[in-house]
Prior knowledge:
By secondary structure, this protein is mostly beta strands. The chain has strands spanning 2-4, 9-19, 22-32, 41-49, 53-64, 75-86, 97-108, 111-120, 130-138.
Amino acid sequence: LSNTLDHKMHLSFGFGYGRPQRADASLSLIRLSRPDSDVPFGWFAQARPGVSAGVLAGGCGVFAFAPSFGAPPYFALSLSAALMRAWGQPIGAPSRTSFAGIEITGDVAGIRLTFGQYLKLGATTTSRARLSTWSAGVGF
């Protein structure tokens, strides 16, 4: 689900469900640094508020809004650094806690899968400080 602002800028939105956010919405601003190349590389910033947590992420990736380099339209593969804040009743995470981590996202034909590894900010033991996350949805 994307809207082209110009040939380099894209605004994308989506919806999903995952751990720990439960239901979430996403809004991404994507800037392609090489929009006319065979492999459209770019940078993005994303906000993903959810029922039980929210994520702010930024990173880089390959984004094909039209068929390109043998990939179908609406294909994306990205890596990002992210900050997450949990509230309410998150799945598998303590409430009112902040995390920092990395995420990898794959999107094919508008279907998105995201996996992440986070560390609890201010944690004193590593066994309780790590959090694995996932999310599935539509749109980037």
